[in-house]
Amino acid sequence: MIRWRDIIIYAKYSNPEPPRRVEKTEEEWQEALTPQQYRILRGKGTESPYRNAYCRSYEVGKYVCVGCGSFLFDSGTKYHAISGWPSFTQPAAKNALRYLFDDSYKMQRVEVQCNVCSSHLGHVFPDGPEPCGLRYCINSESIRLMPE
């Protein structure tokens, strides 16, 4: 189970080694993604709150990265956070995500990226439910639900 302390250590010193790496040129990313997905995954953008595919969706399955298909979150860790974006309490695996400090927009946050293809997913915050207290606030455009 990952805790806030672990995330800070990963962001400050070193992230877990990914199971594999996917690297593409910017042209390849533009061809593979929709314009909105490209803006979010490669440009570190965000989507409108509450008006996205998975904010209010609670179907059973696995959420994978739109960029590379890596398993990121299980639907069992998804919860209603009233944040406007899909929220999860834990990643699928310790090495599924990459953490980076983000001080854009005059805020101090921790950015979450896919550890395999370095695509921007969203941010993680220490205000989630127990037992670990994490809230992974993820853009719907960066993930895809694979129903069971």
UniProtKB/TrEMBL annotation:
Family annotation (PROSITE patterns): MSRB
Enzyme category, top tier: oxidoreductase
Occurrences of domain MsrB (ranges): 26-148
Keywords (A to Z) from UniProt: Oxidoreductase
InterPro entries according to UniProt: Met_Sox_Rdtase_MsrB, Met_Sox_Rdtase_MsrB_dom, Mss4-like_sf
Enzyme nomenclature, EC number: 1.8.4.12
Pfam families: SelR
UniProt cross-references to SUPFAM superfamilies, sorted A to Z: Mss4-like
Superkingdom in the source lineage: Bacteria
GO molecular function: peptide-methionine (R)-S-oxide reductase activity
NCBIfam families: peptide-methionine (R)-S-oxide reductase MsrB (TIGR00357)
The protein's name in its UniProt record: peptide-methionine (R)-S-oxide reductase
Provenance organism: Rufibacter roseus
